[in-house]
Write a structure and sequence with these properties.
Blueprint: H1 4-10, H2 14-17, H3 21-27, H4 35-56, H5 60-81, H6 88-109, H7 112-148, H8 152-174, H9 180-201, H10 204-214
Helix pairs in contact: 1-8, 4-5, 4-7, 5-6, 7-10
Length: 237
């Protein structure tokens, strides 16, 4: 983890990561917590998949079977959305089981070659979407920081510490855990550590501005806001 000396010297760059719920929470495997979002994803996923099938040259029968499998998946998602669960773990397990069943259904429909072609196309599409989201978020953060009028030295410090934070996250993702609870606790500890550092620099309004900038579609941000110590808040890029 980031050493205390580095944190005190380059702490402003913590804003660049801001314990992004989009990265840490997802890495902590909380995908199934929002059933409505999951259903919207399934609709978009099915549309993308159909376009991929056409591009890959799947025949009409194969595409019809795949569409039927995805329709069944959407119905099952809808059922889960209205179901009550005793815990988040139970909800997540239910969604995971559904996705495994769907994957098994696809395995029955597609040949080994078709599965590999489809998976390769899906991986490529996911990488494109991830890059687009990262670029959009970076643009929002840059616009926000431009309003804070940071010096070149402060921006350099932000970049250096941001890389250290990403390294922490990569290290945690590669780490093996004995249980989901242990993994979740590790990510929560990292979020808490970073959030505590942010609160030393930012007031509530500044934290809200940062949260808004980190949202997928952006939010209202970019107006100048001065830091707690009488100068522009020293943070990210």
């Amino acid at each position: 983890m980031i050493r205390l000396s580095l944190r005190k010297t380059l702490m402003p760059a913590l804003l660049a990561l801001a314990i992004a719920p989009l990265s840490l929470a997802v890495s902590a495997a909380d995908h199934g917590d929002d059933a409505a979002q999951g259903e919207r994803y399934q609709h978009k996923h099915a549309a993308h998949l159909d376009a991929m099938q056409q591009r890959l040259g799947f025949d009409d029968d194969t595409r019809a079977e795949l569409q039927a499998a995805h329709a069944e998946m959407r119905d099952a998602h809808r059922d889960l959305k209205g179901q009550d669960f005793d815990s988040r773990d139970e909800r997540r397990d239910a969604y995971r089981e559904l996705h495994e069943q769907h994957r098994a259904a696809l395995d029955d429909i597609l040949t080994d070659e078709q599965r590999e072609e489809l998976r390769s196309a899906m991986r490529e599409k996911m990488q494109e979407h991830r890059a687009e989201r990262r670029e959009a978020m970076q643009e929002r953060l840059t616009a926000l920081v431009d309003g804070w009028e940071l010096s070149d030295e402060e921006r350099a410090a932000l970049t250096e510490t941001r890389e250290a934070l990403y390294s922490d996250m990569r290290e945690l993702r590669e780490q093996e855990f004995d249980s989901r609870d242990e993994r979740r606790e590790a990510y929560q500890a990292l979020r808490d550590e970073h959030h505590a550092a942010l609160t030393e620099l930012l007031d509530e309004q500044q934290l809200e501005e940062l949260k808004a900038a980190m949202q997928p579609k952006g939010s209202k941000h970019g107006h100048r806001h001065h830091g707690k110590r009488g100068h522009p808040s020293e943070r990210d890029a």
